[in-house]
C-alpha cells in the first residue's frame, strides 16, 4: 500500500520558513520530493495540507502543490499497474526524470546509443535531422506535450517547401522524431495521451519512389566504353562488378576479399541485414577479378580503394567508404555524359539496373535470394518498379486498334 501527501518539513531555514515537500510512502518506506517552495508554519494548514489563504501567494503555491501531488500519484498508479515490483527509490527517480525530460535530452541519449553500437552512418544522419528540428522550433528544450500534430505539420511544410526536401526525406525526419518519442514513452518519460502519431494524427507513409535503371544497350555501352582514363575505367569496373552480382552495395563491394571467392563462387555477408549467401561468379566478373590481381594490400581486399585503412576502425571506414563512393559517382557521371547515357549514373543505380533488366522474367523468390532481402515483401515492393510487361500489354489491348 502506498500513500502520497504534502507536508511541511520540520528542518528550519535561517529565516524560520520551512520547505514544502511531497512525501511518498510505500511498504513503510518514505521518500521526499522537494517543491522548491518555503512557508512559515503559521501559513501551513495541517488539516488540508495546503497553504492558508492568508499567505499572499496562497493560490499559486497550492496550485503547485496539487500539480506535484498529481504527478507523483500518476507515477505511483503506473507503477502499481505493472506486474514488476518497483521500489520507492525507483518511483522517485522516474518522477524526477519525467520532470526534467525533454525531447532533445532523450534524443541525445538515442544518439549516444547509436555511437556505442558503432552505427556511425545512422548516427551522423539522425544527428543532422534532430539538429534541423531543433533549429526549426528555436528552443533548447522541448517538452513532449509541445510536440503536437500542428507543430509537426508546420515542420513538414517547412521541409517540403522551404528546405526543398524530397517527400521521402521528409518521412525520414518524422520517423526519427517518432523514434525518440517512442523511447521516451518506453522509459516513462512521456505520456501516450499526447502522442501525435497514429490514425487521425501524423501517419508515417512512405511515398513511392521512382527507380530507374539502365537498359541492356546502356550496360553494353559501359562494358565497351572506349578511351576512358584509368580512374574512369576503375569506376566502371566497380559499377559492372556490382551489377553482375545483382547490385551488391558499395560498402560491401569495397570490403570484398580474395578469400571470399572459392570454387568460382562469392561468399559474403551483407552488412545491411547480416544476411549470408553465395553466388556464382559470372564470366564477365571473372575478367574484372583477373585485372585486379596485380594489386595488393595488407587487408587482402580485391579493390584497392580502401587502401591500408584499419578495417576494425568502423568510424574511419565509414568516412573513407563515403568519400570513395562520392568520387566514383562523379567519374561515372562523366562516363555517362561521354557515352550519351541520359540517366543519372551512380553505384546505387547498378541495383536498379539489375531490377530493370530482370523485370518479370525471374520468379520473385529467386530475386529475393539474389537481392539478399530478408523478406519477400521487400522484394515484391522493390521489383514492382520494374515489372511493366503486364501493364504494357494491357495498355496495348486498349489503344492498338
Automatic annotation (TrEMBL):
Residues 101-185 form the Core-binding (CB) domain. Residues 209-396 form the Tyr recombinase domain. GO terms for biological process: DNA integration; DNA recombination. It holds the Pfam family Phage_int_SAM_5. GO terms for molecular function: DNA binding. InterPro entries: Arm-DNA-bind_5, CB, DNA_brk_join_enz, Integrase-like_cat_sf, Integrase_catalytic, Integrase_recombinase_N, SAM-like_dom, Tyrosine_recombinase_XerCD. It comes from the Bacteria. Keywords: DNA integration, DNA recombination, DNA-binding. The keyword Aminoacyl-tRNA synthetase does not apply. Belongs to the 'phage' integrase family. This is Site-specific recombinase XerD. It comes from Galbibacter orientalis DSM 19592.
Amino acid at each position: 500500500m502506498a500513500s502520497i501527501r504534502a507536508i511541511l518539513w520540520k528542518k528550519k531555514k535561517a529565516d524560520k520558513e520551512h520547505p514544502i515537500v511531497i512525501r511518498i510512502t510505500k511498504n513503510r518506506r518514505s521518500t521526499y520530493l522537494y517543491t522548491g517552495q518555503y512557508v512559515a508554519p503559521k501559513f501551513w494548514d495541517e488539516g488540508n495540507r495546503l497553504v492558508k489563504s492568508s499567505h499572499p501567494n496562497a493560490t499559486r503555491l497550492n496550485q503547485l502543490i496539487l500539480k506535484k501531488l498529481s504527478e507523483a500519484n500518476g507515477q505511483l498508479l503506473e507503477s502499481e499497474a505493472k506486474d514488476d515490483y518497483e521500489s520507492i527509490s525507483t518511483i522517485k527517480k522516474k518522477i524526477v526524470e519525467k520532470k526534467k525530460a525533454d525531447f532533445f535530452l532523450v534524443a541525445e541519449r538515442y544518439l549516444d546509443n547509436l555511437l556505442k553500437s558503432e552505427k556511425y552512418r545512422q548516427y551522423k544522419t539522425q544527428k543532422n535531422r534532430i539538429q534541423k528540428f531543433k533549429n526549426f522550433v528555436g528552443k533548447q528544450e522541448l517538452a513532449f506535450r509541445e510536440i503536437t500534430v500542428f507543430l509537426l505539420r508546420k515542420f513538414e511544410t517547412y521541409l517540403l517547401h522551404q528546405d526543398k526536401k524530397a517527400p521521402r526525406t521528409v518521412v525520414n525526419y518524422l520517423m526519427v522524431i517518432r523514434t525518440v518519442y517512442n523511447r521516451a514513452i518506453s522509459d516513462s518519460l512521456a505520456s501516450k495521451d499526447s502522442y501525435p502519431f497514429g490514425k487521425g494524427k501524423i501517419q508515417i507513409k512512405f511515398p513511392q519512389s521512382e527507380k530507374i535503371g539502365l537498359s541492356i544497350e546502356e550496360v553494353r555501352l559501359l562494358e565497351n566504353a572506349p578511351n576512358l582514363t584509368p580512374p574512369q575505367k576503375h569506376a566502371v569496373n566497380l559499377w559492372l562488378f556490382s551489377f553482375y552480382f545483382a547490385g551488391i552495395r558499395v560498402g560491401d563491394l569495397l570490403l570484398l576479399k580474395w578469400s571470399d571467392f572459392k570454387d568460382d563462387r562469392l561468399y559474403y555477408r551483407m552488412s545491411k541485414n547480416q544476411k549470408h549467401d553465395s553466388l556464382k561468379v559470372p564470366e564477365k566478373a571473372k575478367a574484372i577479378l583477373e585485372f585486379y590481381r596485380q594489386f595488393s594490400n595488407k587487408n587482402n581486399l580485391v579493390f584497392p580503394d580502401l587502401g591500408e585503412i584499419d578495417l576494425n576502425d568502423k568510424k574511419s571506414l565509414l568516412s573513407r567508404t563515403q568519400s570513395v563512393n562520392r568520387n566514383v559517382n562523379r567519374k561515372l557521371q562523366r562516363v555517362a555524359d561521354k557515352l550519351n547515357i541520359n540517366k543519372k549514373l551512380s553505384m546505387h543505380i547498378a541495383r536498379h539496373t539489375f531490377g530493370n533488366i530482370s523485370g518479370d522474367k525471374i520468379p520473385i523468390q529467386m530475386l529475393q535470394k539474389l537481392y539478399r532481402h530478408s523478406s519477400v515483401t521487400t522484394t515484391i515492393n522493390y521489383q514492382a518498379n520494374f515489372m511493366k510487361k503486364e501493364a504494357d500489354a494491357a495498355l496495348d489491348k486498349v489503344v492498338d486498334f
